[in-house]
Hints:
Helix content is 41%, strand content 26%. The mean pLDDT is 85. The chain has helices at 2-15, 17-39, 60-72, 102-108, 112-115, 120-123, 139-150, 183-192, 216-230, 247-253, 269-284, 314-325, 353-366; strands spanning 49-50, 53-54, 75-79, 88-91, 97-100, 134-137, 155-156, 162-166, 169-173, 178-181, 201-204, 207-210, 233-238, 241-246, 254-257, 264-267, 290-296, 299-304, 309-312, 332-333, 336-339, 342-348. Helix 3 (60-72) packs across helix 4 (102-108).
Amino acid sequence: xxxxxxxxxxxxxxxxxxxxxxxxxxxxxxxxxxxxxxxxxxxxxxxxxxxxxxxxxxxxxxxxxxxxxxxxxxxxxxxxxxxxxxxxxxxxxxxxxxxxxxxxxxxxxxxxxxxxxxxxxxxxxxxxxxxxxxxxxxxxxxxxxxxxxxxxxxxxxxxxxxxxxxxxxxxxxxxxxxxxxxxxxxxxxxxxxxxxxxxxxxxxxxxxxxxxxxxxxxxxxxxxxxxxxxxxxxxxxxxxxxxxxxxxxxxxxxxxxxxxxxxxxxxxxxxxxxxxxxxxxxxxxxxxxxxxxxxxxxxxxxxxxxxxxxxxxxxxxxxxxxxxxxxxxxxxxxxxxxxxxxxxxxxxxxxxxxxxxxxxxxxxxxxx
Length: 368
């Protein structure tokens, strides 16, 4: 019985195949239209890319927030005239710039008339027109940024080239131009800049460069001189003897100051004193002699001079090494300082008021 009924229905379908297909197709089309109309009423088309960001089927609100965040974090490289490298790299938000994508996102939503066309969500992204967000600037934040970078007077001092010790070797720290600017012109330039979510934007800031006093070439030349002078070691002459100081030790002692018109080379007191005390000071040390003085009351009646002593002049020795390294001295020689002889008194006093006064005075001096 069931087989006869199935056969009967199959026969009817075959006889009315065209009508069935038309009705089925119509239902499918209506379903697709309803789906597109409702599901994409506030969503972006499928396969859509906005400023390099894939936003297929995103809600307009989510897309706007995402694009705004990306814009806020987009990078900018700020250059001054003739500079080969940026003096600072910042995010758009750091200069107080922002973009509102609400209206732009709404424009990207497939319009109702287009959603009524079956399958339009698959190809409507081709019909999307170019558009821009609404740009804005936070005046206070931008002013703070300009002050931070250029100071209240819109002027930045240059940084001289110098040397530094890195991994046991000398290296050049490149110079950096300073700059002088008109604050209003700088802010005007920054306001006109449009960041790019997909790449870093170069911004040429209207700043007049101020050249440093010490250029890279000067630092490089000084580096060569010092390295040539050090060789494998530095020989320090002390008390007629030679003390070898290993290359790595000398380099570790070096300090540089480029705050003036040249690079000053200094030897670290903290790092060198231990070596000097152990290896150099004993070679030049001479104990002072004794000067013997005989007095009668307040009068000196006899004197035998003792020899001066000698000790290492630590600071003078550091200067001597520095001068040798920079080529201002032919050799490094330890500096010494004289130590006066000790004085021993043999005192005699008379049995008078003068003698008593002398006793009181000398006693007070001896117990200071």
